[in-house]
Design a protein that fits this description.
By secondary structure, the chain is mainly β. 6% of the residues lie in helices and 35% in strands. It has 1 helix and 12 strands, in the order αββββββββββββ. The chain is globular, with a radius of gyration of 15 Å.
């Protein structure tokens, strides 16, 4: 049910789905150290459109060991939590093996969408298609109060703009 570390969801997507279905009952998702890849495609079944789609009022906190009872107990840097666009887990230095990577690791497309992203490494996004050419790490469009803190964006790329983060204001 995701209410404790003992009953944690086995994927970030399952936690997001549960929080969305709760209708506002759950407003934070705590994510233990490890590597997480998007599971849900957002467009026509194209697997490269898989992304972590952010939702209003659901904040994501990474960097947990899996024993904490508060975000303030995290030891940031000690428990790396990676949101990865590396679809096959085969990326190599110099952007080798990136052609299959997801276009955007994180997406947020909604007016006045507010959320916190705290304590993550975001890597491996590859927005290299003419229709998906911006924001390899994160593509944020028409969002409201977005706070990205204690995060590192690394090894993301884009054909047009914002290899790490691309923001289109409302």
């Amino acid at each position: 049910d995701g209410l404790s570390w003992a009953t944690a969801h086995q994927s970030l997507q399952a936690g997001l789905d549960h929080a969305i279905a709760s209708g506002g009952t759950f407003d934070q998702i705590w994510v233990a150290e490890g590597t997480y890849r998007p599971e849900s495609a957002v467009s026509g079944g194209d697997p490269r459109t898989r992304t972590f789609l952010m939702h209003k009022g659901i904040d994501l906190y990474g960097g947990f060991a899996g024993t904490e009872s508060s975000p303030s107990e995290r030891k940031l840097g000690a428990h790396t939590t990676i949101l990865s666009g590396d679809a096959n887990g085969d990326d190599q230095p110099g952007f080798v093996n990136r052609a299959d990577n997801y276009y955007n690791v994180i997406r947020a497309f909604s007016d006045n969408l507010s959320f916190v992203l705290d304590g993550f490494t975001v890597s491996g996004g590859n927005a290299d298609d003419s229709g998906q050419d911006s924001g390899g790490g994160a593509h944020l469009k028409a969002v409201g109060d977005v706070r990205i803190v204690n995060c590192t964006f690394t090894d993301n790329s884009a054909r047009s703009a914002g290899g790490a983060v691309y923001i289109v204001p409302p």
